[in-house]
UniProtKB/TrEMBL annotation:
Lineage of source species: Eukaryota, Viridiplantae, Chlorophyta, Pyramimonadophyceae, Pyramimonadales
Pfam family, one: EamA
GO annotations of cellular component type: membrane
Protein's name in the database: EamA domain-containing protein
Leader sequence residues: 1-20
Family in the record: Belongs to the drug/metabolite transporter (DMT) superfamily. Plant drug/metabolite exporter (P-DME) (TC 2.A.7.4) family.
Sequence ranges assigned to domain EamA in this UniProt record: 8-140
Signal found in the keyword field: yes
InterPro entries: EamA_dom, EmrE-like
DNA repair keyword on record: no
Regions crossing the membrane: 39-58, 70-91, 97-118, 127-147, 159-180
Organism: Polyblepharides amylifera
Amino acid sequence: MKSSNEGLFFMFTSLCSGTALVLVTQVISKQGVHPSSQLAVWVQYVGHFITSTMQLQASPKKADCTRRQSIFKFSIGVCHVCAYLTVIIAMTKIGAAMYQIIYSSGLVWAAIVSRVVLGKVPSLQQGVAILIVTAGLVLNGVKMMAASAPSSGVPASDLLTGSLLTLFITLLFVLMPVLAELANKDLPPQKHLSSAEIGNTTARVGLVVLTVSMLVY
């Protein structure tokens, strides 16, 4: 009964975290670089912290992580925080719709980064999926860029800056699972970092950075 209740609570907190993420994008796209935007992201990290902490408490104890794993965990946390803070700027430049189109290119970049860093070669099915996604993104991106630039009054420089920032964000999110795989490389499965461990470190880094940022801002 206890494990069942814990599972339901994890599901509930995960749904709350996902709902918070939707609210984050809505607040950012409307408020821009504003304390409320930082607060929205801060709330998202609180949800991550609560969920990951309870998962760690419920999971069996294991050996302490190695120095290499600790470095990679912290690096993943930094990537995550940088990505979320950059979202605030990117959203104000290109809007939520264009942001989602560029961010969806993550599948393509994941294949490229995995090939370069991990030496993984996509299968035939994955290759076809990547080509389809790429074609769809190009068509949608060109169509939206042509439709929004003249009518929205957004300067071309802002569109370019926002697009480049969104691409940077996408690469950071793609890099995180690659770093996690590198952290566990050549280690037995029982010593691998769990998603809860990585998420908890990421949440703590995010809470510290955003708390300082909100106090200073």
